[in-house]
Amino acid sequence: MGKLIRRMGPYLLLGLIALLSCGVGGQAAFWLLGSLGDLLRGAGATFLASATGLVGILLVDALVIALVLWGLRDTRVIRYFQTLVVMPLILGFVLGTSLFFGTLGQGLPVGGKPLKAVLPVILVKPEPLTGPLFFGAPLTNTMVAMVLVDLVVLGLGLLAARRAGPLPPPVRGLGILVNLFEFLVEALYENLAKVVLGHRARQVFPLVASIFLMVLAANWMGLLPGFDSIGKVEPAHGHEGGYAVIHWGPFTMLTAEPAAAPAEAAGHEKAGGEPHGTKAEGFVLVPYLRALSTDLNFTIGLALVAVFMVQVWGVRALGPGYFWKFFNVKALRRGFMGVIEFLVSLLEMISEVAKVLSFSFRLFGNIFAGHVLLGIMMFLLPLLIPAVFYGLEIFVGLIQAFIFMMLTMVFIALATAGHEEGHSEGHHS
């Protein structure tokens, strides 16, 4: 046991140094930001609650310094100094700052209100930005996002078309992005569409590639800064609660201070003796841009297009007889087994309708849940930690676009399979 303690002692010591360094970095963040908050309030008090807390913090700092100085006597520890002391200090400072501006921290008091992360309003339906415009329908934030997605996809396509030729221009600026666009399209066509669709790949690929690129652009653009965070501040009509706001020049920002409830606001008197007849009205943010795939109108519309084109290719391959697989009345002449075939054809029709629901709700559910998760994590810890979930959402956005495209290709291949089988049988006979 003594030998084990002697062997593990240095590693335990280094781990303790790293842990304490992280704690000191977090304490420094709270101390600095708290003191800055006091300066903004014009107060001279320190952030620490008591002299006992100040003594405890100083003792921890002294212990970390003593351990580091003792460890530096051994040259083997020097190369670990940056990793175990400097990096934990920076990490602790970032985490401390994140916690300070999260829901568990006090935030920076600005104008008497805590300025820190707030929980966004979670709504399934898109928020209108204007009054009725198109046939009585307003312009929504997902419509604006759809226009941006279309412009990005079309712009990359046009740039790629202009660069097509035996000697493309040298890569610079947007050329790198266009090269990635060309590589992606070529890889999908050569390694996927040709394998699944066979000789029909050339005709079907523009449809499935457009679906993939549009869904991918919609999912990834929804993660850009500005989506769900920049918009217009409106009274919280129809929403529970709401937040107080502060005005900083031309900008209006939500604070973490909730609006007073009606029971708390009514019946009280102001300091000047005036009756407090109305409640402090809360405000919410209506973002100018919202991730397109979090709108059921988009996912259902795209699903309807995909399933409709599956029927189009089925009719092109099999003719009008393609629809007999949905309502096979001819099978009723074959007795009991014919009735079974007729019922199976009805199930085929139900499955086509289910494809629309499967397409739309799979995409909507995954992307909407991801954005809710990001909003909650930013509400808890605004810095560093949400980056992990950002990476996860980038992967989920790519996978969902790939699944939508892949299922469309598979359904088209199945819809045209009867024609291929009949053609093959006729050829061999």
Describe the structure.
The protein is mainly α and 429 residues long. The chain folds into two domains: 2-101, no CATH class; 141-225 and 292-428, no CATH class. It has twelve helices and ten strands. It has helices at residues 2-41, 51-71, 75-78, 81-101, 141-163, 175-197, 201-221, 262-265, 296-318, 335-380, 385-415, 417-428, and strands at 108-110, 113-115, 128-134, 137-140, 231-235, 243-248, 251-258, 268-269, 275-276, 283-287. It is elongated, with a radius of gyration of 31 Å. This is ATP synthase subunit a. Belongs to the ATPase A chain family. It is found in: Cell membrane; Membrane. InterPro entries: ATP_syn_F0_a_bact/chloroplast (IPR045082), ATP_synth_F0_asu (IPR000568), ATP_synth_F0_asu_AS (IPR023011), F0_ATP_A_sf (IPR035908).
Describe the protein's topology.
Layout: H1 2-41, H2 51-71, H3 75-78, H4 81-101, E1 108-110, E2 113-115, E3 128-134, E4 137-140, H5 141-163, H6 175-197, H7 201-221, E5 231-235, E6 243-248, E7 251-258, H8 262-265, E8 268-269, E9 275-276, E10 283-287, H9 296-318, H10 335-380, H11 385-415, H12 417-428
Antiparallel strand pairs: 1-2, 3-4, 5-10, 6-7, 8-9
What gross morphology would you assign? elongated
Order of helices and strands: HHHHEEEEHHHEEEHEEEHHHH
Largest beta-sheet characterization = 2 strands, antiparallel
Strand order of the largest sheet: 1-2
Strand fraction? 5-15%
Oligomerization state of this entry? single chain
What is the number of domains? 2
The structure class reads mainly alpha
**End-to-end separation:** 83 Å
**Radius of gyration from the CA trace?**
31 Å
Q: In which range does the helix fraction lie? A: 55-70%
Query: What number is the mean pLDDT?
Result: 74
Question: Uncertain segments of ≥5 residues (pLDDT<50)?
Answer: 42-51, 261-279, 419-429
Structure annotation, total helices: 12
User: How many strand elements?
Assistant: 10
